[in-house]
Amino acid sequence: MTPLKPLLLPLLMLMLMLQAPSALATGDPEKGRAVFARCASCHQVGPSAHNGFGPQLNGIIGRRAGSLDGYAYSPAMKNAALIWSEKNLKTFLKSPGDTVPGNKMRFWGIGSDSQVADLLAYLRQYP
After folding, report:
1. pLDDT, tens digit, for every residue of 76-119?
2. Can you tell me the distance from the alpha carbon of 64 to that of 78, in angstroms, rounded to the nearest whole number?
3. CATH architecture of 28-123
């Protein structure tokens, strides 16, 4: 049994390292609330959310792009053949203009993968 003892610590460290990315990918909704502050001048979430300069974002995950009733989307967004999966939202949030060229959102994007994950964790709370 003693020959295995030196391997125990490296194996435990490896297991912890392998779990870390999945924790990061899930995101932190509280940190996401802080990230959403950058979006809140145009978008709303929550029970009283309504369209403003941008569409409200309740239920954004799984929604077809440009499809929310009562919001005047750009032709580019209306014609985008996208369903807002988390993968598509990650891509869009990193570079809106590259993902849907010609959309009217005036936002350069979020460069940090962890901030995007946090924002998505926050948005998941508003199905």
Report:
1. 999 999 999 999 999 999 999 999 999 999 899 999 999 999 99
2. 9
3. Orthogonal Bundle (1.10)
